Input
Amino acid sequence: MRWAVVGDVHGCVDELQELYERLQYESLDAVWSVGDLVDRGPDSGAVVEFVRKYFTGCIQGNHEKVLTDLRNKVTVSVDKERSKASIRSKEDWEYLESLPFLHVSDELETVLVHGGLYPEIELWQQIPHAMIRAQLIHTQRPIGDIRWWETDKEGRSEESNRAEGWVRWYEVYDHPYLCVYGHSVFKEPYYHVNKVGGRSLGIDTGCVFGGTLTAVVLPEMKFISVPACREYVPYRLRGQIG
Output
């Protein structure tokens, strides 16, 4: 069995179509996305329609959750209205609202998630808020109490968070399967093996920020990337962090 898993698209439909064309040469059994199809980029609606028609499946990301909450009047977000308006069909909205928070392939020994996972907790007991947003976690605090690794609104840097016992979730990830995720932006795909043998692979390479759109072909972990057509949103891409 061979799968391709695609990183965060964020409305970059031209890059998605180019990447998908390249994947046609790979004799794949399935194509998945780790979520964040929408928002920030030029055409969220076209991306959702394309993925719904041609992909095997997609994991729910935090940007899908924000848009569906906005549509259902759970939240109000003026800056997301353009992305919301670009999703035109009932079928596309139903697709976004039906996306799972994780997907497991026993044959490939792989779990797909958008944000991250907690250690010492079974996959079926993980909570959605963390699965779509986790970056820094604290193993002595309630599940779902998360922080960003960049300086947040309260002025807390990653260094100050680490001094309080916060760690990157993949540093303590302990499930036996490889975890492929998006959400956290790297300049290149970031493969990490921690002290307890937990294996993770970050494939959000910042297409919407002028980086690349990346797919990983499993199980051989072959990377296929296409460059962004332009920088849609300013952002300083991160290098790999060990």
About this structure: The mean pLDDT is 90. The CA atoms of residues 142 and 162 lie 17 Å apart. Residues 3-115+176-227 form a domain with the Purple Acid Phosphatase; chain A, domain 2 fold (CATH 3.60.21.10). Residues 13-23 form the longest helix (11 residues).
